[in-house]
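Quick start: read one record
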Amino acid sequence: MSAQPASLTLEDTPAASTPPAAVIRFLKGPLLLGQCAVNPGETIVDHANACGVRIPTNCTSGTCGTCMVSLILGEVPLPEELPPGLDDFLVEEGARLGCIGIPRGDVDIDIRPPI
């Protein structure tokens, strides 16, 4: 019994490859606490909960700043008007609010707020 080479005809289409899912990683300094696939529309806190990582929250509306984390890498867009829990100088240091921040693409988050 001999193996036959595979052949493609013009009617055949190669299998479509699925692009890799974006990943959000949660760190505490250099320590990786957890990671999971980014689910569009879910907040940083939602993703953290899915990974078993606890980010403290209080107001869940961006008012108090309890859930402040540091964006290390990636994109977490800011609202047009900054909520009371976030100041311009903190944003420049990478601060994002976990309760309202929606990650896009691959994102690395340090659960410690910026200094």
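The longest helix spans residues 44-51.
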